[in-house]
Amino acid sequence: MSTSRVVNGVNVASHYRDEKHQYASNKEGIWLFMVTEILMFGGLFVGYIIYHSMYPELFAEGASFLDWRLGFINTLVLIFSSLTMALGIYYNQISQPKKATWALAITLICAATFMVIKYFEYTHKFHIGIFPGAMLNLETLKEHGYNIQHPNLGLYFGFYFCMSGLHGIHVLIGMGLIAWVMIKNMKREFNANYYTPVEGVGIFWHIVDLIWIFLFPLLYLVG
Amino acid sequence: MGHASGKNYINEEPGLLSWFTSLDHKRIAILYFVSIMFFFLVGGIMALLLRLELFAVNSAPNVGNILKNGDVYNQVLTYHGAVMVFMVIVPGIPAILGNFFLPLQIGAKDVAFPRLNLASWYIFMLGAALAVITFFVAKVDTGWTFYTPYSIRTGGAVVMMVVAAFIMGMSSIVTGLNFIVTVHKLRAPGMSMFRIPLFTWAIYSTAIIQVLATPVLGITLLLLAMERTFGVGIFDPKLGGDPVLFQHFFWFYSHPAVYIMILPAMGVISELITTYSKKTIFGYTAIAFSSIGIAAVSFFVWGHHMFVSGQSEIAGIVFSFLTMLVGVPTAIKMFNWLATLYKGSIEFTAPMLYALGFLFLFAIGGVTGIMLAVTAIDVHFHDTYFVVAHFHYVMVGGTLMAIMGGFFHWFPKMFGKMYSEVGARWSWVFIFIGFNVTFFPQFILGAKGMPRRYFDYVPEYETLNRVSTVGSWLITIGFLIGLYVIVQGLRKGKQAPDNPWGSKTLEWQTSSPPIMHNFDHDPVVTAGPYEYK
Predict the structure, then answer these.
(1) If you ran DSSP here, which 8-state letter would residue B60 be given?
(2) C-alpha A92 chain-centroid distance
(3) Nearest Cα to Cα of residue B224 among A158, A48, A212
(4) A134 reaches B (C-beta below 8 A)
(5) pLDDT 10s digits, B343-367
(6) Domain range for residue B212?
(7) Which of chain A's residues have a Cβ under 8 Å away from the Cβ of B185?
(8) First-to-last CA distance in chain B?
(9) Total number of domains in chain B
(10) What is the pLDDT of residues B140-155, one digit of tens each?
(11) Are the Cβ atoms of A21 and B185 closer than 8 angstroms?
(12) Structural domains of chain A, with CATH
C-alpha cells in the first residue's frame, strides 16, 4: 500500500490520520532505532569495563599513546556540531530554509574535521607500529623508542580501534545523511509543517556525538 | 464470499514484479512465506542427513557413514542449526503471520513503515544468500553458536557466515521496530491496549526482545569477524582476551532469541484455543502480561548456558534460580489455556489438533527446561542429547506446531480458499507421532550420556538412535502431506467465507482474502477480542 494524500501541505501516507500522526510515528521509529545503536555500542562498553578492571595498568599504558589534545579538539568539534545540527532543525521549524542550509553545512564541515583529525591519529599509530591485537608491532615500536611494559598492549588497541572505528563509520554515515537532508533543504522540501528527515538525522547525529563523549574519557583520559 | 468488487490484495496489482516492489504488508508476508518455506526445506534435508548418519554406528557398511567423516557431519550440523534458527524459526511467525495479521488484528491499514517492511525482506534475503554462498565457497563447521576460540582458528568462511547472521539480525530489528510503532500508533479507534488480540500481544512482546537483544548479537558477531580478520584479541586468551566473554555476549542475545522463537508461537496458540473452544479466553490480562513477563525475564537468564564454562559458582546459582523463574509466566499461560478448554465447545479441527499438540510437547519441553536449570542436574546433562531433545521439544514441538496450526487457521483468510481438513489432520498425525518418536528417545540417550554434536557413538546407543531416525522419516511424511494439502488448497480449494471458524478477532471481519486497504470502512472497536460466551 503506497498511496498518499496531501494534508496541511504534507504528503501523508494513507495509513496515517494526518501529518501529526505520521510525524509522531516516524519519530518513535527513529528513537527505537537509536536504542538499538546504544545497545550495540553497549556490548563494546561492557567489554571495555571488564578488561579495564582486569588489566588497569595495561589500559593506562595504552591510553598514554593517545594524544588527549586531539581527542579534546574532536570533542569540542562534535559538541559544536550538535549545536549547529539543532539549529538546522530549528530554522526549518520557523521556516527559514536558507539559515537551515548554512547550519547543516557547518555541521557537515565539523564532521569532516573530526574525520580528518581521526585520520591523522590513526596513520600516526600505524606509523609507529600500533595495530589492534596480534598485529601490534613491538619491533617498530622499539625502533621509534617506545619500550612496552605489557606485551598484550594490543588488547587495549583492539578496543581502541573497534570502538573509535565503529564510531567513525557512524560519523561517515551521519555525513551522508546530513548531506542528504542539506540537499533536500536546498530544494526547499521542508517547512514548518514538515521537517521529519532533518529531525531524524539530527537525533542520529546527537547520539553519535553522545557516544563520542563517552569514548573520549574512556579511551584518552583513563589512566 | 470475497469482496463485492472481486478485488483483493492478491489480484489488485498484476504481474510477478509487482510482488517484489509491493509495500503491502500482506504481500510482504507472502514473500517471507515462500522464502522461509524454502529455507525450511533446506534445513530439513540437512536434519534428515544427520539422522541418517546416526542410523547406525560408523563401522556398519553403507549406512552409518553416509556423511563420510566427522568434518562433513560438523558442517551439515552447522548449516542445519544456522538455517533453522536464523532463517526459519526466528523470522517464521513474526515475519509471515505477524506481518499479515498484526495490522489486521488492530484495525490498521498497514504497518507503520511499509517501505522499511519491504526493505527488511530484501535485507533478510541478502543475509540468507550470503549464508548459502558460504556453503558452496568454504563450509563452516563451528555450529550455529560460533563459539570462540574454535571459531577463530577453524577454516571455512566464518567471517562471511557471521556477517550473514549480522545482516539477518538487522532485518529482524527492522521488523521488530516496525511492529512496536504499529501497535503504539496505528490501533483503530476503540482498540485499547487491552482489546488487542493475544497474538498481537505476543508479537509485540517479541518485537521488544528483537529490538533490545539483537544489537548485542550484532556487535558480538562483528567482534568475532574482527577477531578473525585482525586478531583484535578480545576473545583470544593468547592476547589476554577471554573466550567465555563471547559466550556471555552471544547468549545475552541468543537466550532472549529463544523467546523470539517461542513467544509468537504462544500467541498463535492463544488464538487457536479460544477460537476452537468457542469460549472467551481465560485470563486475557494474565496471558498478555505473562508475554511481557517472559520478555523481561529472558534478559537475565543467559548464564544458564555457561554452568560448566567456568563462570563463578555464585553466578551459576543466581542464573539457576532466575531461569526457574521463566517457568512462572509460562505456566500462567499453560493453565489459562487449559482453563479456556474447560467446558468449551471444542472442535478437533486441524489447527486445534496442532494447538493441543503444542500444549503436550511444550509441557515436556518446558519441564525438561526446569530440570536443566538445576545446576546439579545440568552438570550431568550438559552437552548431551538430553539438551538436544529439550530444545527440539520447545523449538520444533512448540514453534513448528504453532506455525502449522496458525497457518491452517489463517489459510482461508490469506488465500481466500479452504484446505482439505482431512489431509491437514493426517499431516498432524504424522508430525506429532513422528516428532515424539524422533526426540523422546533422545532424552533417554542423553540421560545415558550420549554427547551431542558427535558423528558416531558406541554400539549401546544404536537401537534408540535407529528409532529416532525412523521418527525423522515420519515427520518428513507429515510435512509432505502438509505441503500437498497447501498446494491442493491453493489450486482447487473451495472459496472461503469471510469467517469460516466463527472467530471474533478483527481480521475475520474483512473479506477473504482481504482487500488492499484491509477494511472497507475504518473499523471502530467496541468490545474485547474474544467475546464468545
Answers:
(1) S
(2) 23
(3) A158
(4) yes
(5) 999 999 999 999 999 999 999 999 9
(6) 29-508
(7) 21, 24-25, 28
(8) 26
(9) 1
(10) 999 999 998 899 988 8
(11) yes
(12) 42-221 (1.20.120.80)
